[in-house]
Amino acid sequence: MPPKTCLSNTSSCFPFLWSLSRSTRQWPLSARLPLDRRRHISAYGYTQAKALVYPNHGSPADVLTLHTHSISPPHSKLLTLRTLAAPLNPADINQIQGTYPTAPPFTSEFGTAEPSAVPGNEACFEVLSAGSGCKVVGKGDWVIPRRTGLGSWRTHVQIDEDKVMKVDKEGLTAEQVATVSVNPVTAYRMLKGFMPLQEGDWFIQNGANSAVGRAAVQLGKMWGYKSICVIRKREGAEGEALKEEMLELGATVVVTDEEIMAENFRDRVKGWTNGGREQLRLGLNCVGGNSGVALAKVLGAGGTMVTYGAMNKSPMRLGASMFIFKDLRFVGFWVSKWGDGLPDEKKRTIDEILGLIRDGKLKDVPMVEVPWSWETKKEELVDAVQGTLEGFRKGKGIFKFGDT
Q: Which of the listed residues 66, 75, 332, 360 has the most CB atoms within 10 Å of its CB?
């Protein structure tokens, strides 16, 4: 009888591999993948992952590194997720810098030389595998973080089922799902949660061409509100093109940050609002400083200013007359705190917004994709993160994950 060989009897030569695949009589997944992907899943079922991590706070260029680690097969209520897309938000950068009120935890679970944190609060994930105790989410589903601070700038993550929420992916892109829970939700809640606007009422906002501002313009138009949208001045054709773009999105009036500082701005607002007979009742402020004060000055009596950012890092100096004679109300809104405290309301809002996106009623913000595959170098990723801090940008930065 001829001797047994590996080709004629795999079970004799590779008993472990044969036992793993005995139920299907196939080679295990790691052996059946193309050669260029076999390194990502080991014969033992471990998933190889990469993450941007930082061991201490500082400038992204100084503290971020790209770290490789292994994720064991999920059990109980654990999910193993593959990241499809993850945006680069200003809050993510602030967390790295150590200037944000909350931050992801520093941990040793990744096997780094010292405890490190993974930045990123938003993402769209695909479920690769689920533990036997998972009841709601299964393989192939798309999920997003239920709370902030997950740490989404990584190729894969393992997490408890109850820390994510499932979304209906039909008719949506990963980029749309990945960017839904911060900016559109912020716009929605500020328009609905602070001042009961009626059809025909006005609101004014600075930073109007930001992701929040663009969502507010479109939602406001949809609900019958009129808007005065303030953008930073740009010279020549670029500035005119941006004004036209904002008007096409649904803005009623578009002005620059220089125009709102002019002495005649209040008179111009009075003209737009039918001599002041139409109510300008709500201001949305993400800039602060003199820009925020200029918005407050044109609000009608009893109006509300909602501040959700402070881009120029300058304080707002508010005159007593705004409180005494106009009875203005100044409040803040932090979507992370709101969503973490009201997860069911957050999910309802997200589902409604995704429905509007699916129906083509809410347009995407301009995005600048940053490709991330297994071979992507640290420098490419870190340069993209650092670039979000510099000057005018053509769109929202977002990691787009490929072959990971």
A: 66
- What residues contact residue 319 under an 8 Å CB cut-off, 6+ apart? none
Q: How far apart are CA 259 and CA 256, in angstroms?
A: 5
186 contacts 210 by C-beta, under 8 angstroms: no
The β-bridge relationship of strands 226-231 and 202-205 is parallel
Reading the chain (404 residues) residue by residue, the pLDDT tens digits are 433 333 334 333 433 333 333 333 344 443 444 433 444 555 467 999 999 999 999 999 999 999 999 999 999 999 999 999 999 999 999 999 999 999 899 999 999 999 999 999 999 999 999 999 999 999 999 999 999 999 999 999 999 999 999 999 999 999 999 999 999 999 999 999 999 999 999 999 999 999 999 999 999 999 999 999 999 999 889 999 999 999 999 999 999 999 999 999 999 999 999 999 999 999 999 999 999 999 999 999 999 999 999 988 899 999 999 999 999 999 999 999 999 999 999 999 999 999 999 999 999 999 999 999 999 999 999 999 998 877 567 789 999 999 99
Catalytic residues: 100
Contact assessment for residue 151 and residue 178, using Cβ atoms and an 8 Å cutoff: no
Q: Where are the beta strands (DSSP E) in 88-231?
A: 124-130, 142-145, 156-160, 164-167, 202-205, 226-231
Q: How far apart are CA 373 and CA 368, in angstroms?
A: 16
